[in-house]
Amino acid sequence: MGSEKTRAENKAERILAEIASWKNGKKTSLEVQLKKFEEKIENKRAAYIEKMKNKIAIIHKEADKKKALVEAKKGEVENNILSLMK
């Protein structure tokens, strides 16, 4: 009877080990998937941030051009007024 108990305990231990192995395998697989997903999201985030920064830089550049045009026209008007006053 002692050997039956030992056999049953050994079988239970083996089954528990198989369950633990199965769990660890599934967990590892999901952790790998999660890491890949996080990397993909981070890459998309970085690309989007770069895209938005480029758009902001373009807006600054356009604004500077518009300011320069206004300043140039302002200078022309001032020069015209001064020449008329002479």
Characterize the structure shown.
With 86 residues, the protein is mostly helical. 98% of the residues lie in helices and 0% in strands. It has one helix and no strands.
Question: Keyphrases for this structure?
Answer:
86 residues, mainly alpha, 1 helix, 98% helix, coiled coil, Remorin_C, Remorin
Tell me the structural class.
mainly alpha
Rounded radius of gyration (Å): 37 Å
Helix segment count? 1
Task: Give the rounded overall mean pLDDT.
Answer: 93
Percent in strands: under 5%
The parts where pLDDT drops under 50 for at least 5 residues are: none
In N-to-C order, the SSE pattern is: H
The end-to-end distance, rounded to whole angstroms, is 126 Å
The tally of beta strands, per DSSP, is: 0
Tell me, briefly, the overall form. rod-shaped
> What is the helix fraction of residues, given as a range?
over 70%
Largest sheet composition: none
Note the topology:
Blueprint: H1 2-85
Quick rundown:
InterPro entries: Remorin_C. The chain has one helix at residues 2-85.
